């Protein structure tokens, strides 16, 4: 390989600088940045690929399947998956895991109707379109949680069809969690026999096992599959995710492929072999207790941010045990500096484990500075 030209070298340095700078002021998206995977740098020398099923043999052996299986076991345990009846794989992100959940539901209930709340992540709509599944949007309550009454009424109107629920375990905007127990009670009352519940736990799936009271979201609560993002709460230099599903479900779609000497059970063929190693490293170095501490830190910072915002007269609020603080969208300059998303006049900050009180103080100072300027104008 040739070396980079001087000009391209400069471009690359500028990119590194930009990324480093933009990583500093980052409060608006649910992505952790407090990781150090430098011990894994050596692995960038190899084309690590977990082609095929993580639990099946494969002829391609430059892989990290062993670590991947340990990652899956860890999540199976904290998501209370039934012993010997779970399966999963490390995905490219939460969206792929959600797509898998819907795909599984469609294979089991080809005539099913999908129900999901208006606060559901935008990618779900696209996946339903790709999978060609009929679906109905359910109203949300003010806090972003699904409106159980609307869900109940809508299901009753279509009670001849199997029910497929796409539940939110932490919505994108307000981190609201749909309650699986309440949803199951609705299905029970309507005497629905055939149903499937998928939980989109992109952000809060990996937080919820550490919360008290524990939200109703996992396999013991009645989920058939759960998807999370690996680069959100855990943190990873490349996007990743974890998908877990009851094994008895996935056995109905597994298909053997001679070319790779494995089972074709995953959505993509080649799969990132590096991302399971990042997740494995995080789980091994932090452990259950370390992850719990990060959750506690995030909750403390969120409480601090909510209080500070209220103290300067801003109507901030958050859902119970959420690390997302919602408030009326601030001045454009503040949104730009802190990379704050906004929707329908609302912004939020997400107090990921790397967020500090000092950053919240700086944000508060910025909000005050720009609201004064607005008043002077
Ligand atoms: C981020 C997110 C997703 C999508 O996850 P990716 O990892 O970005 O693919 C889906 N649902 C919710 C609620 C999210 O927050």
From TrEMBL:
Entry-linked InterPro entries: Group_II_Decarboxylase, PyrdxlP-dep_de-COase, PyrdxlP-dep_Trfase, PyrdxlP-dep_Trfase_major, PyrdxlP-dep_Trfase_small
UniProt-listed PANTHER family: PTHR46101, SERINE DECARBOXYLASE (PTHR46101:SF2)
Organism of provenance: Solitalea agri
Iron keyword on record: no
Residues where N6-(pyridoxal phosphate)lysine is found: 232
GO biological process, one term: carboxylic acid metabolic process
Needed cofactors: pyridoxal 5'-phosphate
Protein name: Histidine decarboxylase
Recorded GO MF terms: histidine decarboxylase activity; pyridoxal phosphate binding
Family stated for the protein in its record: Belongs to the group II decarboxylase family.
Keywords attached to this entry: Decarboxylase, Lyase, Pyridoxal phosphate
Catalytic activity, EC: 4.1.1.22
This protein's record includes keyword Lyase: yes
Source species, domain of life: Bacteria
Pfam families given in the database record: Pyridoxal_deC
